[in-house]
């Protein structure tokens, strides 16, 4: 099992100022709702205290979609992965304020989390909204969705589970389609309404620049009957 950062990271830790409120929330609430990076997958029923299906969100930013969808779907558990500390602080404060018992977070690189902690066929859905676009060609290697990404995340999906992505970068959308359309086990579908995400901060930035929003929703086929 690989523990080290032997891959090109898809993020840089930004030195964004953390508000006092975010810092206080992070320090007080991460020990409550945060999950530690483990070498083995956690037992979800112990993490959440129930057997409900799990949805993972990669790079939840300020947590707008994570919180809104978790509120709307209390019959699902949500596991959010993010490295940006102010976003974790804000999200943790919201989890507490709204008393959401179905959300847990981890401050780690999603690549490591998937390699080490997400067991095969253990999650119902994976959300990845507005991944860092790395628009310059020389930075494309930092993009999260590239060859190798399906092998990282797809095994985690239960049969019939879904992968839901959004981006406002045309060429990244084309790259995502090229990588995921090539997967025989995945089929692109319309977004399933219950999981639909709210508008996020990064989406608003894209819209302000007249970017088109691409929604990409894939189902992992059920082997026997699809
Ligand atoms: C462009 S922002 C989008 C945030 C949010 N999904 C939204 O729509 O507003 C991308 C986020 O992904 C996070 N991120 C990028 N690569 C990551 C990784 N490998 N593991 C965890 N988070 C990552 C970044 O820290 C950043 O907050």
How would you characterize this protein structure?
By secondary structure, the protein is of the alpha/beta class. It has one domain: Vaccinia Virus protein VP39 (Rossmann fold, 3-Layer(aba) Sandwich), CATH 3.40.50.150. Helix content is 33%, strand content 20%. The chain contains eight helices and seven strands; from the N terminus they run ααβαβαβαβαβαβαβ. Strands 3-2-1-4-5-7-6 form a seven-stranded mixed sheet, sandwiched between helices. α3 links the parallel β1 and β2. The radius of gyration is 17 Å and the shape is globular. Bound molecules: S-adenosylmethionine.
Helix tally equals: 8
Radius of gyration: 17 Å
Give the total of domains. 1
Per the CATH scheme, the topology name is Rossmann fold
Q: Can you count the beta strands?
A: 7
**What topology, given as strand order, has the largest sheet?**
3-2-1-4-5-7-6
Give the gist of this structure:
This protein has 226 residues and is an alpha/beta fold. Helix content is 33%, strand content 20%.
Give keywords.
single chain, 226 residues, alpha/beta, Rossmann fold, seven-stranded mixed sheet, 8 helices, binds S-adenosylmethionine
